């Protein structure tokens, strides 16, 4: 169980972060754990894996990649040889997640024209893949990265793009409306996509979408199919994680009574989203329902 507890802690304290990475880390932990379980009857094995899955799922509440990855791996428990199957499913998830990001890069890069300035928010592997692919196709592009307070994941994005040789400008989150006239397209990642085509992503994403809408700048999100939330098809709401206020600021003395709120994500309504880039193609937000129906079935069992 050590690997499970360790992974749970790393996801919780954001040592491992970003929806795709969280999902793959959970799948990997389940695989490693399954491999260590020896000489056990199938029922006992299933109990242990389900318990491990539950713990991993509870590490962070918003990114649906986490429960979707766990569910994918746990489907192996239904097979004749559950241990072998769980290990195989975990490996499958990790490989298909990496391939999905690559495909999103190729599909999304088609929306980026030569000479474009792109704005991105937070640190999304999938959004970065789109930008990197466009750049390596030879397009002359510039990128604005927001800082993404309070944890400044935008610094990671700016460094990753700089390492590729891309022209990057870091801006504070509140400067998006100031710079939007210089932006041709917004590309962000996704922690979850709902059945009605809304996007749950890093706090501030919805403000950027609104600003892009006002300025008539296309707003795209990159989301692997496992970022679509199956339970939203039956009206379930996605929990927005609220993190430790100390991530924002710490006041002393009499100012300790100042309240601080620190929601980590927000919801962008579908009307502000021009397209969702998935590994199976570019879809309008209205197409989210079809993805959930095709890849997850009608209702969660
Ligand atoms: C990360 C975040 C990213 C999505 C998508 O938030 O909001 O935009 O997770 O990332 P946090 P990816 O830093 O709180 O985990 O495309 O890498 O899955």
TrEMBL record:
UniProt record, GO biological process: L-methionine salvage from methylthioadenosine; pentose catabolic process
Molecular-function GO terms, alphabetical: ribose 1,5-bisphosphate isomerase activity; S-methyl-5-thioribose-1-phosphate isomerase activity; translation initiation factor activity
Enzyme class: isomerase
InterPro entries in UniProt: IF-2B-related, IF_2B-like_C, Initiation_fac_2B_a/b/d, M1Pi_N, NagB/RpiA_transferase-like, R15Pi
Pfam families documented for this protein: IF-2B
Protein transport as UniProt keyword: no
Residues binding substrate, per UniProt: 17-20, 60, 201-202, 227
Catalytic activity: alpha-D-ribose 1,5-bisphosphate = D-ribulose 1,5-bisphosphate
Assigned protein family: Belongs to the eIF-2B alpha/beta/delta subunits family. R15P isomerase subfamily.
NCBIfam families in UniProt: eIF-2B_rel, ribulose_e2b2
Function: Catalyzes the isomerization of ribose 1,5-bisphosphate (R15P) to ribulose 1,5-bisphosphate (RuBP), the CO(2) acceptor and substrate for RubisCO. Functions in an archaeal AMP degradation pathway, together with AMP phosphorylase and RubisCO.
Listed name of the protein: Ribose 1,5-bisphosphate isomerase
Species in which this protein is naturally found: Methanotorris formicicus Mc-S-70
């Amino acid at each position: 169980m050590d690997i499970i507890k360790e992974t749970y802690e790393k996801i919780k304290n954001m040592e491992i972060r970003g929806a795709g990475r969280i999902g793959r880390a959970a799948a990997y932990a389940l695989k490693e754990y399954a491999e260590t379980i020896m000489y056990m009857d199938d029922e006992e094995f299933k109990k242990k894996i389900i318990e491990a899955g539950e713990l991993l799922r509870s590490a962070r509440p918003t990114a649906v990649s986490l429960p979707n990855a766990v569910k994918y791996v746990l489907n192996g428990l239904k097979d004749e040889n559950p241990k072998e199957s769980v290990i195989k499913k975990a490996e499958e998830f990790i490989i298909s997640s990496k391939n999905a990001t690559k495909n999103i890069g190729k599909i999304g890069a088609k929306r980026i024209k030569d000479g474009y300035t792109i704005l991105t928010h937070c640190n999304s592997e999938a959004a970065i893949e789109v930008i990197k692919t466009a750049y390596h196709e030879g397009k002359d592009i510039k990128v604005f990265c927001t800082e993404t307070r309070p944890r400044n994941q935008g610094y990671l994005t700016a460094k990753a793009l700089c390492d590729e040789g891309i022209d990057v400008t870091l801006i504070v989150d509140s400067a998006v409306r100031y710079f939007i006239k210089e932006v041709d397209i917004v590309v962000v990642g996704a922690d979850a996509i709902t059945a009605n085509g809304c996007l749950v992503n890093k706090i501030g994403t919805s403000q950027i979408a609104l600003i892009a809408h006002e300025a008539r700048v296309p707003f795209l999100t990159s989301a692997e199919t496992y970022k679509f939330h199956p339970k939203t098809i039956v009206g379930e709401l996605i929990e927005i994680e609220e993190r430790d206020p100390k991530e924002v600021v710490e006041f002393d003395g009499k100012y300790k009574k100042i309240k601080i709120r620190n929601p980590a994500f927000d919801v962008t309504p579908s009307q502000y989203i021009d397209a969702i880039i998935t590994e199976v193609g570019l879809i309008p937000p209205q197409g989210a329902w079809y993805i959930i129906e095709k890849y997850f079935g009608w209702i969660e069992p």
